[in-house]
Amino acid sequence: MTQTVVGWHIELEFEEDTHRTRAAALVRLSDGSEVRAHGYASRHPADSEQPRVGEEIAGARALNELAMKLLTKAHDEIDEESGRTSYPLT
Q1: I need a surface site. Which of 26, 30, 64, 74 has the fewest CB within 10 A?
Q2: Rounded to an integer, what distance in angstroms lies between the CA atom of residue 90 and that of residue 70?
Q3: Predicted confidence band at 87 (pLDDT cuts at 50, 70, 90)?
């Protein structure tokens, strides 16, 4: 039996200012398509500056959105191939 190994590389980029962090996530799939997502984090003025925490929150939110978009993409492909409405993927 032949086994195919596929790998995905996910890119995360961050933009930060004094109170906000924005994360952009990108994954390139083996079919040549790309899926992009974004996440945000805001620091309360009373909180101390912790840029790493803002990156973790914004990054997690971007990855969560990316995961949901990948589930939707897979669900749509199942529907298209089968010609019927399938059960939602969660």
Answers
A1: 30
A2: 11
A3: confident
